[in-house]
Design brief:
161 residues; mainly alpha; 70% helix; elongated
Length: 161
């Protein structure tokens, strides 16, 4: 009889604690729902209103699933999977095997071609002075100017060689 009484007391304390832990885990979903509802209270046009209503419905469903403990498990992100494959390849020492299809999908071959080679390339890099306005180009007109300036400097460099 005492064992039954102790069991009932323990169960009565465990149930509210479990419910509280569930509420804490679902707080981000509830915050997202409240954020969307706050956006709905501000002014918006018709298409934005439909979009917000749809987002609110999804957020409410997600929050309710969390409250009921029926949220599907999260899937691994592509980046985590890529890291896993890379670490496995390094571990198996097959990273340098270019015939391996996993390695082919993970590596990108970047080829940089320059007009000059060796010491001449280094001389060109020392010679070329990029104009200040070409350091953060925002328009196609400025981009065209920068390309023309580089070509002009390149021609002068070639003539001085």
């Amino acid at each position: 009889m005492i064992k039954l009484l102790i069991f009932i007391i323990l169960i009565s304390f465990a149930i509210p604690f479990k419910a509280f832990a569930g509420k804490k885990a679902c707080q981000p979903y509830l915050s997202k729902l409240h954020n969307i509802q706050a956006q709905q209270r501000t002014g918006y046009n018709n298409s934005k209103g439909r979009s917000l209503a749809e987002r609110e419905k999804k957020a409410r469903d997600k929050w309710w699933q969390c409250e009921q403990g029926r949220l599907p498990k999260k899937r691994k992100k592509a980046q985590e999977i890529k890291k896993k494959h890379t670490s496995l390849l390094k571990k198996n020492n097959t990273l340098h095997n270019q015939n391996n299809p996993i390695v082919k999908s993970l590596t990108n071959n970047v080829v940089i071609k320059a007009k000059f080679r060796g010491q001449q390339q280094q001389d060109w890099l020392d010679y070329y002075q990029k104009p200040q306005q070409c350091k953060n180009v925002k328009t196609t007109k400025m981009f065209a100017y920068c390309i023309e300036d580089k070509n002009r400097q390149q021609l002068l460099f070639e003539q001085s060689q």
